[in-house]
Amino acid sequence: MARDQEIQGIFEIADDSLQGVLGYHFYVRAIYVSADPNKLKAQLPTISGVESFRLTFSWGRYYRKEDLINTFLPPFFELYQSRISLTAIISIFDDLLDNFVAKLKSKGYPQRLKGKGLGDRSCYKDRIEWAFDESQKCEIGDMKAIARLPKTFGIIDEARNLRNLIIHHHGIFDEQYERDRIDSKGIEKVTHPDYEKFKDTGKPISIIINDEDIINFSSAHIEVLHILHNQIQKEYFGHCEPYNYARESKAIGWHYAFWGNAKIDDIKETVRKQSYLKI
C-alpha cells in the first residue's frame, strides 16, 4: 500500500525544518568566526548618529556597540547561539507530534495519550511518551537507531527540560529540572553535568550547551522523526518500506528547508525594504 501523503507531508516539513535549523546554526557560526569586528560595529544600529536602537514604538535605548560585541566574545556566542538553536528544534518537534496526533485522529485513528482520552489534546511531555511507545513498535528502517531509542528519547526529554529552563528561568538551573523529567522505565535519563554544581552550592548555575550538543540534540530528534514516521505509515496505512532520501531522490534543499514550497524568485521579487507594520 502507498504511504499516506498527508502524514508524509507533516513528516517532510518537520524533517526539512530541523535540517534548516542545523544549516542555519552552521552558517551563523561560520559568519561569526569570519567576522571583522570593525566591520561588524559599522552595521550595528544607530539613531541620528547616536549609538541607540528602538526598543518599543515609543522608546529608544542607548547602548555601546563595543559592549554588545564584547558580550559575544568566545565562548559566549557559541553558548547563546546553541540555546537559540535548541529552542527552535523543540518548537518544530513539538508541533510535529501534535500534528501527527491530530491528523491520525482526523483519519479515524485517535491516539490514547497518558492521562487523556482518545485523541484529546495533551502537553508536550505526554506526546513524547506517546512517540516513544509508538516508535518502539517499529521493525523497519535503521535497526541500530531503533535499538538506541531509550537513549535517544532521553536526549529528547533532556532537550525539552533545558528548553523550559531557558525560556522560563533565564537558562538557570533549579529544582524543576529534576522534577520535570519523564518518569519512564524505558527512557534513559540524561543529566546535564552542571546540575550537580547547583545541587551542591545552591548558586545560580547557567545551562551550558555547545555546538556539539546541538548536533547531538538535532540527531536525536531527526532520528526519532524518521522511526516514528515509518511506524505510523506501516501500522495505520500498511506501507512497509522505510523512508529513504536516496530512494525518494530527495537531496538537501536548503531553500525548501527555509522557505517551504514558495518559489525563490517570487520571494526575491516581493522583498520589502520597509516593514509593512504601521503604527
Provide a concise account of the structure shown.
This protein has 279 residues and is mainly alpha-helical. It contains 12 helices and 2 strands, in the order ααββαααααααααα. α1 runs antiparallel to α4 and α7 packs across α10 (211-237).
Structure description:
Strands 1-2 form a two-stranded antiparallel sheet. It contains twelve helices and two strands. It is mostly helical and 279 residues long. The mean pLDDT is 93. The chain has one domain.
**Helix and strand element order:** HHEEHHHHHHHHHH
Strand fraction equals under 5%
Low-confidence stretches: none
Gyration radius, to the nearest Å? Answer: 22 Å
Structural class: mainly alpha
Strand order of the largest sheet: 1-2
The proportion of residues forming helix, as a percent range, comes to 55-70%
- End-to-end distance, in Å? 54 Å
Rounded mean pLDDT score:
93
Q: What is the molecular shape? A: globular
- Largest β-sheet summary: 2 strands, antiparallel
The overall number of domains is: 1
- The DSSP helix count reads 12
Q: How many strand segments?
A: 2
List keywords for this structure.
mainly alpha, 2 strands, 12 helices, two-stranded antiparallel ribbon, 279 residues
